[in-house]
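the two lines:
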Amino acid sequence: MMARGLLAFAALAMLVVASSPARAVLPQERLADPALEARAREISRELRCQVCQNQSIDDSNAPLAADLRRLVRDRLLAGDDDARVLAHVVARYGDYVRLTPPLRADTALLWATPAIVLCAALAAIALRLRRRQAAPPAAKPLDAREQAALRELLRQGDAGGRGGGG
Amino acid sequence: MRRALFLLPLLCFAAVATWFAFGLGRDPSRIPSALVGRPAPAVALPPLEGAQRPAFALQPGRVAIVNFFASWCAPCKVEHPTLMRLAAEGRIAVHGISYKDAAADSARFLAQLGNPFETIGWDRDGRAAMEWGVYGVPETFVVGRDGTIRHRHVGALLDDTVARVLVPMVARLERE
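prediction for all of em together
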Protein backbone atom coordinates (compact mmCIF):
# COMPACT_ATOMS: atom_id res chain seq x y z
CA MET A 1 0.00 0.00 0.00
CA MET A 2 2.71 2.39 1.12
CA ALA A 3 4.97 1.38 -1.78
CA ARG A 4 2.18 2.04 -4.26
CA GLY A 5 1.64 5.53 -2.91
CA LEU A 6 5.34 6.28 -3.14
CA LEU A 7 5.45 5.01 -6.71
CA ALA A 8 2.52 7.25 -7.69
CA PHE A 9 4.20 10.21 -6.04
CA ALA A 10 7.46 9.50 -7.84
CA ALA A 11 5.67 9.22 -11.16
CA LEU A 12 3.90 12.51 -10.58
CA ALA A 13 7.12 14.22 -9.55
CA MET A 14 8.86 12.98 -12.69
CA LEU A 15 6.00 14.27 -14.83
CA VAL A 16 6.20 17.70 -13.25
CA VAL A 17 9.97 17.86 -13.70
CA ALA A 18 9.86 16.58 -17.27
CA SER A 19 7.10 18.89 -18.48
CA SER A 20 8.16 22.19 -19.99
CA PRO A 21 5.91 25.25 -19.82
CA ALA A 22 3.06 24.80 -22.25
CA ARG A 23 3.30 26.67 -25.51
CA ALA A 24 0.57 27.17 -28.02
CA VAL A 25 2.52 25.66 -30.90
CA LEU A 26 0.69 22.58 -32.11
CA PRO A 27 2.60 19.46 -33.20
CA GLN A 28 1.42 19.74 -36.79
CA GLU A 29 2.68 23.32 -36.99
CA ARG A 30 6.26 22.35 -36.21
CA LEU A 31 8.84 22.31 -38.94
CA ALA A 32 10.71 19.10 -39.65
CA ASP A 33 14.09 20.87 -39.46
CA PRO A 34 14.84 21.48 -35.75
CA ALA A 35 17.16 24.41 -36.48
CA LEU A 36 14.49 26.15 -38.56
CA GLU A 37 11.85 25.35 -35.94
CA ALA A 38 14.07 26.88 -33.22
CA ARG A 39 14.39 30.07 -35.30
CA ALA A 40 10.62 30.09 -35.83
CA ARG A 41 10.08 29.86 -32.06
CA GLU A 42 12.59 32.65 -31.47
CA ILE A 43 10.82 34.96 -33.95
CA SER A 44 7.39 33.98 -32.63
CA ARG A 45 8.34 35.05 -29.13
CA GLU A 46 9.09 38.50 -30.50
CA LEU A 47 5.72 38.93 -32.25
CA ARG A 48 2.64 40.19 -30.47
CA CYS A 49 -0.66 38.45 -30.95
CA GLN A 50 -3.01 41.26 -32.01
CA VAL A 51 -6.03 39.54 -30.51
CA CYS A 52 -4.73 38.96 -26.97
CA GLN A 53 -2.28 41.80 -27.00
CA ASN A 54 0.00 40.93 -24.13
CA GLN A 55 0.81 37.47 -25.42
CA SER A 56 3.30 36.57 -28.07
CA ILE A 57 2.09 34.47 -30.96
CA ASP A 58 4.18 31.69 -29.46
CA ASP A 59 2.02 31.76 -26.32
CA SER A 60 -1.36 32.61 -27.74
CA ASN A 61 -4.02 30.10 -28.67
CA ALA A 62 -5.92 32.60 -30.81
CA PRO A 63 -6.54 31.45 -34.39
CA LEU A 64 -4.78 34.54 -35.73
CA ALA A 65 -1.66 33.65 -33.70
CA ALA A 66 -1.71 30.20 -35.30
CA ASP A 67 -1.99 31.81 -38.74
CA LEU A 68 0.94 34.10 -37.97
CA ARG A 69 3.03 31.21 -36.69
CA ARG A 70 2.36 29.46 -40.00
CA LEU A 71 3.27 32.60 -41.90
CA VAL A 72 6.58 32.86 -40.01
CA ARG A 73 7.38 29.23 -40.77
CA ASP A 74 6.45 29.63 -44.43
CA ARG A 75 8.77 32.61 -44.75
CA LEU A 76 11.58 30.64 -43.11
CA LEU A 77 10.99 27.73 -45.49
CA ALA A 78 11.11 30.19 -48.37
CA GLY A 79 14.63 31.05 -47.23
CA ASP A 80 14.15 34.40 -45.49
CA ASP A 81 16.55 35.27 -42.68
CA ASP A 82 15.14 36.21 -39.26
CA ALA A 83 15.26 39.95 -39.88
CA ARG A 84 13.37 39.63 -43.16
CA VAL A 85 10.68 37.43 -41.59
CA LEU A 86 10.21 40.04 -38.88
CA ALA A 87 10.14 42.83 -41.47
CA HIS A 88 7.55 40.90 -43.49
CA VAL A 89 5.16 40.77 -40.54
CA VAL A 90 5.91 44.34 -39.40
CA ALA A 91 5.20 45.64 -42.92
CA ARG A 92 1.67 44.25 -42.66
CA TYR A 93 0.86 44.68 -38.97
CA GLY A 94 2.97 47.68 -38.00
CA ASP A 95 5.57 48.22 -35.28
CA TYR A 96 2.98 47.35 -32.67
CA VAL A 97 3.29 43.69 -33.63
CA ARG A 98 6.80 43.64 -32.18
CA LEU A 99 6.97 43.07 -28.44
CA THR A 100 10.28 44.98 -28.34
CA PRO A 101 9.79 48.39 -29.93
CA PRO A 102 12.48 49.22 -32.49
CA LEU A 103 15.06 51.87 -31.54
CA ARG A 104 14.53 54.76 -33.94
CA ALA A 105 14.47 58.53 -33.80
CA ASP A 106 10.73 58.56 -33.02
CA THR A 107 11.06 55.91 -30.32
CA ALA A 108 14.24 57.30 -28.74
CA LEU A 109 12.26 59.08 -26.01
CA LEU A 110 10.50 55.81 -25.14
CA TRP A 111 13.80 54.03 -24.72
CA ALA A 112 15.48 56.93 -22.92
CA THR A 113 12.70 57.52 -20.38
CA PRO A 114 14.02 55.13 -17.70
CA ALA A 115 17.50 56.68 -17.93
CA ILE A 116 16.04 60.19 -17.83
CA VAL A 117 13.93 59.42 -14.77
CA LEU A 118 16.90 57.78 -13.02
CA CYS A 119 19.18 60.76 -13.75
CA ALA A 120 16.52 63.21 -12.55
CA ALA A 121 16.08 61.26 -9.33
CA LEU A 122 19.84 61.09 -8.70
CA ALA A 123 20.18 64.80 -9.41
CA ALA A 124 17.37 65.59 -6.97
CA ILE A 125 18.99 63.48 -4.25
CA ALA A 126 22.42 65.05 -4.84
CA LEU A 127 20.92 68.53 -4.66
CA ARG A 128 19.18 67.75 -1.39
CA LEU A 129 22.28 66.25 0.19
CA ARG A 130 24.38 69.21 -0.78
CA ARG A 131 21.84 71.65 0.60
CA ARG A 132 21.71 69.77 3.90
CA GLN A 133 25.50 69.81 4.23
CA ALA A 134 25.78 73.50 3.51
CA ALA A 135 26.30 75.61 6.66
CA PRO A 136 23.12 76.95 8.17
CA PRO A 137 22.69 80.67 7.45
CA ALA A 138 24.28 82.96 10.09
CA ALA A 139 21.77 84.08 12.70
CA LYS A 140 20.60 87.67 12.30
CA PRO A 141 21.10 89.76 15.45
CA LEU A 142 17.91 90.88 17.16
CA ASP A 143 16.90 94.46 16.57
CA ALA A 144 16.04 96.87 19.42
CA ARG A 145 12.30 96.07 19.45
CA GLU A 146 12.96 92.32 19.58
CA GLN A 147 15.51 92.81 22.39
CA ALA A 148 12.92 94.70 24.43
CA ALA A 149 10.30 92.02 23.84
CA LEU A 150 12.76 89.32 24.90
CA ARG A 151 13.66 91.17 28.11
CA GLU A 152 9.99 91.58 28.89
CA LEU A 153 9.35 87.85 28.39
CA LEU A 154 12.32 86.89 30.58
CA ARG A 155 11.17 89.20 33.30
CA GLN A 156 7.64 87.73 33.22
CA GLY A 157 9.08 84.21 33.22
CA ASP A 158 11.17 85.01 36.32
CA ALA A 159 8.16 86.43 38.12
CA GLY A 160 5.97 83.44 37.20
CA GLY A 161 8.74 81.03 38.25
CA ARG A 162 9.05 82.59 41.67
CA GLY A 163 5.30 82.61 42.14
CA GLY A 164 4.69 79.03 40.98
CA GLY A 165 7.78 77.37 42.45
CA GLY A 166 8.43 77.01 46.09
CA MET B 1 6.35 78.64 -1.89
CA ARG B 2 8.22 75.93 -0.02
CA ARG B 3 5.09 75.06 1.85
CA ALA B 4 3.31 74.39 -1.46
CA LEU B 5 6.00 71.88 -2.38
CA PHE B 6 4.21 69.07 -0.56
CA LEU B 7 1.44 69.40 -3.16
CA LEU B 8 3.85 68.42 -5.93
CA PRO B 9 3.53 64.62 -5.59
CA LEU B 10 -0.23 65.03 -5.38
CA LEU B 11 -0.24 67.07 -8.59
CA CYS B 12 2.01 64.54 -10.32
CA PHE B 13 -0.35 61.77 -9.27
CA ALA B 14 -3.36 63.72 -10.50
CA ALA B 15 -1.71 64.30 -13.87
CA VAL B 16 -0.80 60.63 -14.33
CA ALA B 17 -4.23 59.47 -13.11
CA THR B 18 -5.96 61.78 -15.61
CA TRP B 19 -3.77 60.48 -18.38
CA PHE B 20 -4.57 56.87 -17.46
CA ALA B 21 -8.27 57.65 -17.12
CA PHE B 22 -8.31 58.84 -20.72
CA GLY B 23 -6.34 55.74 -21.73
CA LEU B 24 -8.96 53.50 -20.13
CA GLY B 25 -11.60 54.89 -22.45
CA ARG B 26 -9.61 54.00 -25.54
CA ASP B 27 -10.35 50.84 -27.45
CA PRO B 28 -7.20 48.68 -27.46
CA SER B 29 -8.29 46.94 -30.66
CA ARG B 30 -7.93 50.21 -32.58
CA ILE B 31 -4.35 49.79 -33.68
CA PRO B 32 -3.38 52.05 -36.55
CA SER B 33 -2.87 50.12 -39.74
CA ALA B 34 0.64 49.87 -41.10
CA LEU B 35 -0.79 49.77 -44.59
CA VAL B 36 -2.42 53.20 -44.75
CA GLY B 37 -0.76 55.08 -47.58
CA ARG B 38 0.59 51.91 -49.13
CA PRO B 39 -0.69 50.14 -52.24
CA ALA B 40 -3.40 47.60 -51.59
CA PRO B 41 -1.74 44.17 -51.40
CA ALA B 42 -2.19 42.09 -54.51
CA VAL B 43 -3.96 38.92 -53.49
CA ALA B 44 -5.13 36.20 -55.82
CA LEU B 45 -8.28 34.69 -54.41
CA PRO B 46 -10.83 32.33 -55.93
CA PRO B 47 -14.38 33.66 -56.29
CA LEU B 48 -16.90 32.72 -53.62
CA GLU B 49 -18.76 29.75 -54.98
CA GLY B 50 -22.51 30.22 -55.06
CA ALA B 51 -22.40 34.00 -54.74
CA GLN B 52 -22.53 34.76 -58.49
CA ARG B 53 -19.87 37.43 -58.37
CA PRO B 54 -16.46 37.60 -60.04
CA ALA B 55 -13.31 36.96 -58.03
CA PHE B 56 -12.08 39.84 -55.87
CA ALA B 57 -10.39 42.55 -57.93
CA LEU B 58 -10.11 46.30 -57.43
CA GLN B 59 -10.84 48.50 -60.43
CA PRO B 60 -8.41 51.38 -60.67
CA GLY B 61 -9.94 54.83 -60.93
CA ARG B 62 -12.74 54.15 -58.49
CA VAL B 63 -12.82 54.71 -54.74
CA ALA B 64 -13.57 51.38 -53.14
CA ILE B 65 -14.08 49.74 -49.80
CA VAL B 66 -12.89 46.23 -49.10
CA ASN B 67 -14.83 44.46 -46.37
CA PHE B 68 -13.59 41.33 -44.65
CA PHE B 69 -16.54 39.30 -43.42
CA ALA B 70 -17.62 35.84 -42.35
CA SER B 71 -20.94 34.15 -41.73
CA TRP B 72 -19.79 33.18 -38.23
CA CYS B 73 -19.09 36.80 -37.29
CA ALA B 74 -21.91 38.52 -35.41
CA PRO B 75 -20.78 42.15 -35.95
CA CYS B 76 -20.67 41.39 -39.69
CA LYS B 77 -24.39 40.82 -39.51
CA VAL B 78 -24.79 44.12 -37.68
CA GLU B 79 -22.91 46.12 -40.29
CA HIS B 80 -24.50 44.37 -43.26
CA PRO B 81 -27.39 46.83 -43.77
CA THR B 82 -24.83 49.66 -43.91
CA LEU B 83 -22.90 47.87 -46.64
CA MET B 84 -26.15 47.25 -48.51
CA ARG B 85 -26.95 50.97 -48.39
CA LEU B 86 -23.46 51.93 -49.56
CA ALA B 87 -23.77 49.49 -52.46
CA ALA B 88 -27.23 50.79 -53.37
CA GLU B 89 -25.93 54.37 -53.47
CA GLY B 90 -23.40 53.14 -56.02
CA ARG B 91 -20.94 55.94 -55.38
CA ILE B 92 -18.13 53.68 -54.25
CA ALA B 93 -17.28 50.13 -55.23
CA VAL B 94 -17.96 47.68 -52.42
CA HIS B 95 -15.81 44.56 -52.43
CA GLY B 96 -15.91 41.66 -50.04
CA ILE B 97 -13.50 39.03 -48.86
CA SER B 98 -14.89 36.02 -47.06
CA TYR B 99 -12.54 35.29 -44.18
CA LYS B 100 -11.94 31.74 -42.92
CA ASP B 101 -15.42 30.60 -43.69
CA ALA B 102 -16.96 27.67 -45.56
CA ALA B 103 -17.91 28.89 -49.03
CA ALA B 104 -21.44 27.52 -48.67
CA ASP B 105 -21.90 29.37 -45.34
CA SER B 106 -20.68 32.69 -46.76
CA ALA B 107 -22.88 32.26 -49.83
CA ARG B 108 -25.90 31.52 -47.65
CA PHE B 109 -25.09 34.55 -45.47
CA LEU B 110 -25.20 36.77 -48.59
CA ALA B 111 -28.27 35.04 -50.00
CA GLN B 112 -30.19 35.69 -46.79
CA LEU B 113 -29.06 39.23 -46.03
CA GLY B 114 -28.40 40.50 -49.54
CA ASN B 115 -25.18 40.76 -51.50
CA PRO B 116 -23.62 44.24 -51.48
CA PHE B 117 -20.35 43.18 -53.10
CA GLU B 118 -19.28 43.74 -56.69
CA THR B 119 -16.50 41.21 -56.43
CA ILE B 120 -15.86 38.64 -53.75
CA GLY B 121 -12.74 36.74 -52.80
CA TRP B 122 -12.78 33.55 -50.81
CA ASP B 123 -9.95 33.60 -48.28
CA ARG B 124 -10.38 30.16 -46.80
CA ASP B 125 -7.24 30.06 -44.64
CA GLY B 126 -6.92 33.77 -43.85
CA ARG B 127 -3.75 34.13 -45.90
CA ALA B 128 -4.90 37.10 -47.93
CA ALA B 129 -6.22 38.78 -44.79
CA MET B 130 -2.74 38.62 -43.29
CA GLU B 131 -1.38 40.36 -46.39
CA TRP B 132 -3.84 43.14 -45.56
CA GLY B 133 -2.83 43.16 -41.90
CA VAL B 134 -6.26 42.00 -40.79
CA TYR B 135 -6.54 40.53 -37.33
CA GLY B 136 -10.22 39.86 -37.13
CA VAL B 137 -13.52 40.36 -38.86
CA PRO B 138 -15.14 42.65 -39.61
CA GLU B 139 -12.53 45.02 -40.95
CA THR B 140 -13.10 47.50 -43.73
CA PHE B 141 -10.48 49.28 -45.81
CA VAL B 142 -10.95 52.37 -47.94
CA VAL B 143 -8.92 52.26 -51.14
CA GLY B 144 -8.30 55.41 -53.17
CA ARG B 145 -8.56 55.76 -56.93
CA ASP B 146 -4.85 55.12 -57.26
CA GLY B 147 -5.18 51.80 -55.44
CA THR B 148 -3.57 52.88 -52.18
CA ILE B 149 -5.14 52.06 -48.83
CA ARG B 150 -6.38 55.26 -47.20
CA HIS B 151 -8.21 54.12 -44.12
CA ARG B 152 -8.93 51.08 -42.05
CA HIS B 153 -11.97 50.58 -39.91
CA VAL B 154 -11.92 47.86 -37.25
CA GLY B 155 -15.24 46.42 -36.13
CA ALA B 156 -18.75 46.85 -37.46
CA LEU B 157 -19.07 49.72 -39.93
CA LEU B 158 -22.15 51.61 -38.81
CA ASP B 159 -24.10 54.45 -40.41
CA ASP B 160 -22.69 56.87 -37.86
CA THR B 161 -19.11 56.11 -38.93
CA VAL B 162 -20.10 56.27 -42.57
CA ALA B 163 -21.55 59.74 -42.16
CA ARG B 164 -18.76 61.01 -39.93
CA VAL B 165 -15.69 59.43 -41.56
CA LEU B 166 -16.42 57.66 -44.79
CA VAL B 167 -18.52 60.21 -46.67
CA PRO B 168 -16.08 63.14 -46.20
CA MET B 169 -13.17 60.86 -46.98
CA VAL B 170 -14.73 59.52 -50.18
CA ALA B 171 -15.57 63.05 -51.28
CA ARG B 172 -11.92 64.02 -50.76
CA LEU B 173 -10.59 60.92 -52.50
CA GLU B 174 -12.83 61.44 -55.50
CA ARG B 175 -11.38 64.90 -56.04
CA GLU B 176 -7.84 63.58 -56.09
